[in-house]
Specification:
With 212 residues, the protein is an all-alpha fold. It has twelve helices and no strands.
Length: 212
């Protein structure tokens, strides 16, 4: 009886050891793979991503906080609590994008620009859905100047607004801005009213002049 018990425990222990080893191996593969495909080097290995990367290096974000951000800093949520979002980004967003890389011609920036509005919309909507979590990773406790800007930031607490609702053309080449709340509600791209946007800018400049 005792011999059978020892034999059973040895077999059980071996099974558990194998299972634990496979589990650890799977974790290493998943986390290691996620880290590998989140590098800027991997991103710009696709020809189409060279153009936005060059734009990033010329933007105000490059070196602004004492370091040069990479693609993942804006487009891939960080931290263990956001790991599911990072994986979702690569699988749901990245896989179709990789497919498009093979069937479209991105040999010139002009050809890339033909699909830029679509890409910008997808990126903006993803940030909207994430509550701009990647923006907040660097920009914390912001204190915007001007009454208009302060009122806009207050909407983040009162109306469900988020960073990307207002800040849409900071890094890459300008693309007409979207009304992201309306786009989310209607399930399609909805552009902001240009006239209204220009009026808001004029009002904000006037307020800043008064304060100065």
């Amino acid at each position: 009886m005792a011999g059978r018990l020892r034999s059973y425990l040895r077999e059980k222990g071996s099974t558990l050891a194998v299972g634990a080893a496979l589990g650890v191996g799977l974790i290493i593969v998943v986390f290691g793979g996620e880290a590998a495909v989140s590098t800027t080097t991997f991103c710009i290995s696709c020809h189409s991503e060279i153009y936005p990367y060059e734009e990033l290096k010329k933007s105000s974000h490059w070196g602004a906080l004492g370091s040069d951000p990479g693609c993942k800093d804006c487009h891939v949520p960080r931290g263990l609590e956001n790991f599911h979002r990072a994986v979702y980004t690569h699988v749901v967003d990245g896989t179709p994008f990789l497919f498009m890389e093979f069937i479209n011609d991105y040999s010139t920036v002009e050809k890339f620009n033909e699909r830029r509005p679509e890409a910008a919309y997808r990126a903006r909507m993803r940030l909207k859905e994430w509550d701009s979590v990647t923006c907040r990773a660097c920009h914390q406790n912001t204190r915007p100047p001007g009454k208009s800007a302060k009122a806009a930031h207050e909407k983040m607490q009162t109306e469900g607004a988020t960073c990307i609702d207002c800040h849409q053309n900071l890094v890459h080449k300008k693309v007409p801005e979207h009304d992201l709340t309306a786009s989310l509600a209607q399930g399609r791209p909805v552009l902001k009213e240009v006239k209204k946007k220009e009026e808001e800018k004029g009002e904000e400049k006037a307020e800043e002049k008064k304060e100065n």
